[in-house]
Amino acid sequence: MDRKQCCVKLSVQPSRGLMDEKFIVLVQNALPGSQLTIRALHQCEDGHSWEAFGHYTADTTGTINLSEDPSIRGTYSGVEQMGLLWSLRPIPGSKPGLRMRKKNIQTPMEVTISVYQGHQTEGFADLVPLSGVVVERWYMAPGVRGFQLQKVDSPQPFFLPLGPGPFPGLLDLYGLGGQLVEYRAALLASHGFASMAIDYVNSKFTIETGKMVDSQYFETAYRVLQQHPQVCKSRIAMIGFSFGTSITLKMAIYSEIIKLSAAVCISGSHVQPVDGSVEEILRFSYKNAGKTRFSEKDEKIWRDQLLPIPTDPSLKADVGRLQCPLLLLVGEDDQSCPAQESALDIKEMMAQAGNSHLLTVLSYPNAGHLIEPPYTPHTRSSNFRTTGMPEKVMYLWGGQTVEHSRAQEDAWKKILVFLRENLYGGRNPTLFSHL
Amino acid sequence: MTQVVPPILSVTPSRALVDEKFKVLVENLPPGCPVTVRSLHHSEDKDDWEAYGHYVSDHSGVVSVSEDLSYGGTYTGKEPMGLLWSMRPVPGSRPGLRLRKMNVCTPMLVTVSVHSGHEGFRDQAPLASVLTERWYMAPGIRRININEQGVQGTLFIPPGPGPFPGLLDMWGGGGGLLESRAALLASHGYVSLALDYLGFDQESENLEFKYFETAFNIIKDHPQVMPDRVGIFGLSLGSLVAVTLAAYSTIVKPCCIVCISCNHYYPARGSTVTSKFEGVTRQLSKARVNEDNQVIWKDVALEFITDPSNIAEVGRINCPTLLVNGCDDQNWPTVETAEDVARLMREAGKEHLLSRLAYPDTGHLIEPPFSPHFRATTFVMRSSKEKVILLWGGQTKPHSDAQEDSWRKILSFLQFHLYCSPNLKAKI
Asked: Which part of the chain is the BAAT/Acyl-CoA thioester hydrolase C-terminal domain (chain B) (predicted)?
């Protein structure tokens, strides 16, 4: 073995970061001009292994800096500082339809980053790397406290930033699939929002009756959040993903009790029976099950179920009545939900009603349905069992990896700015009117 | 309760190694608002340490500790890391405290908070707080207790296949086993052994050369260590071990040595490090005490080392040597020692091996960056168990600058000699 190449130094800074923080991967002391492969390996909670890699050439000082140097090929190419994370995919031979979602957010995601001699594409398990480091990626910043708020039907995970507060509050609603995920709420708390992840799929009521919870469930959650001594009563927002969007719009527009300072809707639609119960809204989208298409890989495509966007106003949430700012995030290649068509219709409805100054639409070409926090690996399709359905089937979510990953990064930044402006900002706007 | 939305305080990165910088930012303040940014750490010894700076927000309501001037507090001026290096025990604490992390498996927790106003900022609750973690151990580092062949210590191994260069790490005459620097060196890619050589109750006969040579070989023979790339890192008494091993040992050949606050006192009598040290401490009991009741060893020690028969023959050293010392060292005459070492190595034709860093207004305890400075702390005399207050020296700001500068240079010295192949670099 070449002694000099043994001394290759690999470093990643920061070695412990939040999930949305960038890192710098640096290789030093390599032979100038040598070909090296940098690879990331992660074993997720369900035991599956994910990997990403890039092929690089060391410069004349024997250095490779991932924030400046291009990967020639691999699971990503070009100058991609965070490519080792967002291009992670199951190792060859894994079962199909996997999706990476962290359940335990009290521990970090651990990624081993290694550098190998030459340009390798496979068989990494049998190779000895030149160097390797371990990197931790956290959903929770130090000091963020996660606990259960007990006063609703079922205890809801609640994340509170450190400090006296009071903090603006957030109700976080995910989509219909399976278990509750808390990671977005935890990450938002790490940015200063008291966040409650609402489990509306697995509530005691739903388990006992087989029916969806109704408005009262969410209104109670809102009240519980408001009443927390460290939450700012008058600054509460809702963030809904996929079916969570339908609930968010329903609450924002029709609830007498919930008064939101802002709403964020990701990959969702406003098509729903006006003032229908949550159960009715759910049944409505299943009504058109016959419109489900299948891709050439036999993946279920759901997006047509709500199409065409109805002209009948009783079938769409009346966004003209919205009184709070709304941020809509849309993946133009969303195969599960007609988010783009819905967004265009929402725009029109609000323009007619005269409240379009409240609306911001962020529409991302070639992004799919699953717009997650940044650097989450893109999942174009996965095995999914939705509420009320017996088995897991392959669903097509859509999106092309590179563009989808860029969309996630941009979307998250803009979500944080939007929430900051509407929940933290504007003590006295007239002070700045001369600027 | 008034529902006024608080300012937004952030520390980035929120989790870092102890030698990494952070950015402290306060946003969403009213414009032109006086605030105090404060850090608080509750130590393992249950003392509270704090630092604070007085700031005024700009007209976008922002205070950036990295960019703005502190107008007063425990530090002034533009000091991105002032909230760490200027920490001192809170008012009312017992005197002579020293901050050392004994458990390196957990991070040092620092709460950074922002308070309204300058004078009397402590009287009200903070407006916002965040917690930041400062780690000695990078993720993936393995910590292994060593108790073999009579040697006691702790070994830290970086993640990855290796092989790695190695380091034997020794602190000073205060005794006990301090793992912090060895853990940090492992975080920079060195297999490091923090050696316990004064803290246990064995007979001092055991601590002759053989002990240190065995320890060195434990590192050298480790399957993940490159046997010809093992160095020695010593502070104070630890540096005495480093120079004498490098000068006299026929068994071990360190690849390079780093000596902080170098000590080359090596009288002929006494066969072990501890017995030589015992001799010194007996004589040091004659040391001067200043008006603050702090003991100054430097002057008494200077008398010993002027006798050439009391000095290690450093001209016999055959490896690259880095000496780091503070010019205001009140504990040991390290300025004179460094001069003496330079002279002796020059006379022996070894000048090309020596590099020196000497820092003005810097004391004896030169530690990794952003560690608080201690001008004087309580020290328990090994022989008599008497508690005294030893004066180490240094002024906080220059001492802290020295810690930051020297660490960077020490790391590049180690990288050069233990990681790079010398053939690739031009000799200057």
From this structure: 208-419
What is residue B427's predicted lDDT score, i.e. its pLDDT? Answer: 35
Print burial letters for A68-98: b (CB count within 10 Å at least 16), e (below 16). ebebeebbbeeebebbbbbbbbbeeeeeebb
Domain ranges in chain A are 3-138, 145-423
Q: What backbone phi and psi angles, to 5 degrees, belong to A288?
A: -95, 30
Query: Chain B: residue nearest A229 by CA?
Result: B1
Q: Tell me B16's DSSP state.
A: E
> Between A146 and A384, where is the model more confident?
A146
Interface test with B, best of A7, A107, A112, A167 (most B CBs within 10 A): A7
Number of A–B residue contacts, CB under 8 Å: 123
Q: Report whether B111 contacts B39 (CB < 8 A).
A: yes
The pLDDT of residue B224 is above 50? yes
The angle subtended at Cα A376 by Cα A371 and Cα A381, nearest 5°, is 65
Respond yes or no: is residue B364 known to be catalytic.
Answer: yes
pLDDT in tens, B113-139: 999 999 999 888 999 999 999 999 999
Query: What residue of A is the nearest CA neighbor of B425?
Result: A61
Would you say B236 and B173 are in contact if contact means Cβ atoms under 8 Å apart? yes
Of A128, A135, A141, the CB nearest to B139: A135
Is there a contact between B129 and A29 if contact means CB atoms under 8 Å apart? no
Helices (H), A35-189: 83-86, 183-189
Q: What pLDDT, on the 0 to 100 scale, is given for residue A205?
A: 82
| Interface contact A128-B161, CB threshold 8 A | yes
**B267 or A100: which carries more pLDDT confidence?**
A100
Considering chain B, what is the average pLDDT of its residues? 91
Confidence of residue A152 (pLDDT cuts 50, 70, 90): low
- Scan for tokens 């006691």, then name that residue: B152
A1 CA to chain B: closest CA distance, Å? Answer: 12
pLDDT at position A429, please? Answer: 37
**CATH top-level class for A145-423?**
alpha beta
Choose the catalytic residue: A154, A334, A345, A382: A334
Q: Are B83 and B51 in contact (CB under 8 A)?
A: yes
The predicted model gives A404-431 an average pLDDT of 83
Neighbours of A298 (CB within 10 A): 10
Q: What does the pLDDT read at residue A384?
A: 85
Q: How far is B238 from chain A (nearest CA, A)?
A: 27
Q: Does the pLDDT value for residue B3 go beyond 80? A: no
The helix/strand/coil state of B317 is: coil
Across residues B84-89, what is the average pLDDT? Answer: 97
CA distance B227 to chain A (A): 12
Please, which residues have CB within 8 angstroms of residue A77's CB and are 6 or more apart in sequence? A54, A70, A71
Nearest CA distance, B4 vs chain A (angstrom): 8
A3-138: CATH homologous superfamily?
Acyl-CoA thioester hydrolase/BAAT N-terminal domain (2.60.40.2240)
Strand-strand pairing, A35-43 and B151-157 = unpaired
Identical fold for domains A3-138 and A145-423, yes or no, is no
Of A2, A16, A117, A419, which to mutate for an interface test with B (greatest number of B Cβ within 10 Å)?
A16
Distance between CA atoms of A108 and A99, rounded to whole angstroms?
Answer: 17
Per residue in A8-28, pLDDT (tens digit) is: 889 999 999 999 999 999 999
> Are B6 and A163 an interchain contact pair (Cβ–Cβ within 8 Å)?
yes
Find the helix packing angle between B298-305 and B273-284, rounded to 10°: 120
> How far apart (Å, rounded) are the C-alpha atoms in residues A328 and A263?
9
Helix, coil or strand: residue B85: helix
pLDDT digits 0-9 by tens, A256-266: 999 999 999 99
A4/B128 touch (CB, cutoff 8 Å), yes or no = no
Q: In angstroms, rounded to a whole number, what is the distance separating the alpha carbons of residues A70 and A355?
A: 46
